[in-house]
Amino acid sequence: MLLRSIAPLGLLLLGSIGVVTTDVPRAIACIAFDWDGDTETFGDDGYDGSDGRNGEDGRSGPNREIVADGTETVLDLSGSDGEDGEDGEDGDRARSCRQPRKTEYNVRGAPGGDGGDGGRGGDGGDGGDLTIYYSDRADLNKIYVVAEGGRGGSGGRGGDGARGCDCRERDWDVEICETVEGRSERRCFDREFRCWDGDDGDDGRRGTNGRSGDLGQLTLVPGGEPLPEDRPSATISLSQFGDRPVSLSRHRWETQFGATSLLAPGSKIADEYREYIDTIAGDFSLRWNDPRAIARYGDIPVALNLVEAGKVEATVPESIWIAAAVSQENQTTIWTIDRILREQEATQLKVSEFAGSRQDLRLSAIDSAAKSDILTTDFAIVYRSTKFGDRLGTRSNYDVRYQGEIPPELVELDYNRFTLNLGKLPIDDRYLMSGVGVDIEIEVTRSLGDRSAKQTLIWQGTIR
């Protein structure tokens, strides 16, 4: 206890803001005292106000297509205004704010509730777009159009924060008495306690205003007739290709400025407009030369894209490997598929045999996917071995005897079986003998066209 520890010195220190010296058993000093750990709250917190509802966005104006024939025409394609956001609710005042009296601890009033945030204003709707088909450009001046965007709604007002509980009595003294250890007397002193008002709630934030809508845009098509729908791209599975080519087309447009100068005076529409130039077209035809049936790969999607007049670009997913030739006959792009496989089919090699010794040491691997006739296959090896008679163990027990590519002349292919003649690699004969422990790591690289994948084969054991 603080009082006992300093009593023999005749000095009483409380906190860091008051000092009293005394030699009498009863201290009569009153000192300020403020320890957060001795503070309790009275009253109930006020409830926060609810946030205001966001305003609804305005509707966009209708899009219209008309033919200019010299008739005076009035069009209202304006978007509607966005709704205002609702105001946030005010917070509630703290409740049950009766301050307890003469407590032996500090007290603080409960805080008031925060005000709710105002709702966001709704965005204004965009003006509608107008497409005009015309034969005589002068007829455009007979068309009056208003395609303004709607105004954005105003953000709602934030609610007011409410008051917390207030103190009725700011400070008071309480006599504290304690028995001095080892003595029969009691020592008493006055301690001052305080009350702080509860915090007022924060005011809610005002909601943001909505964005005003954009002006509608003008599109002009010379000729006086609507354009047929174009098809600049398509995705078709292999099984859907038939004898007839797939036809693609793309309308070409030119961007210009000065839309309002073409229409009736006072028209309101975006200044930038586009005008039709022409339509380009191209056909795509698929020829299947792979010996496997197309139905085996029928689910594979082919993405077609018309890149210029008469030329179509075809792509397949990265997981599909294709060896194909592209040719052009007039307006038709011809895609001839010679070989095709899925990427996972390229990495299906498995070690099937490890046999022989010295110059006849060989390792065989089987291609379980049976794609070795269409893939380019390269091998690289890390050949590790123990010394003769050493036991097999972890890789740290082995030393590298050769690392590098296996020359193509040391690789034999019989249908889907690869035989690697390891005994003809430049490896000291001592490490090719029967009884030597080996750890072999073979990296296989398989390629078709510009696609490739790697697979690692591991074999560990003793040369027989």
UniProtKB/TrEMBL annotation:
Record's signal peptide: none
Superkingdom: Bacteria
Renumbered residue ranges of the record's region Disordered: 41-124, 199-231
Acidic residues bias: start-end ranges: 81-90
Keyword Acyltransferase in annotation: no
Record key words, sorted: Collagen
Residue ranges with Basic and acidic residues bias: 50-59, 91-105
Listed Gly residues bias regions: 110-124
Name used for this protein in its record: Collagen-like protein
Organism of provenance: Oxynema aestuarii AP17
